[in-house]
Amino acid sequence: MPPRLSELNLHGTGSCASFNFRRAARAVTSLYDRAFEPFGIRSTQFSILVGIAKTQPTSISALADLLVLDRTTLTRSLRLLKKQGLLFISNRSTKRQRFLTLTSQGACTLAVSLPAWRKTQDRFVQSLGADYWANFRSELEKMAHVALSLEDSAAEPEPAAIARQVLVSA
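Above: the chain sequence. Below: its structure as tokens.
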């Protein structure tokens, strides 16, 4: 029998890091998505194109690490970008890796969308304050490293195992 909602102790869940970061990320993503709409891309696709442009040719694994995305999610996004003609995915190399490069259309899309990105970025940073943004960006980088290191540590039990224990004991 599942617990009643009135029996759950939800105290402190409003300060959840994941909830608050995702909420802020959705708001910021929406702002940038509107800026990229005339170019037929979304902010997530812009980030992928920038990542490839800065490191090409780059392996899918290296790009996934750079963007902190799991390979499955990235592969779905790459398929769409390839279908749009914005990138090229090589055949598997001898090390079974596939490499990514921008097509000329991808480079053009990036080139025409960069001014919109700069305008949106400048407005966003100005609204926050340049010093605040520089410090906050540094803190975000630190938080990403902490979260990744915690994810990699095996100190805590798997959430799925905890969920199974709760269901079994209920």
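The chain is about 65% helix and 5% strand.
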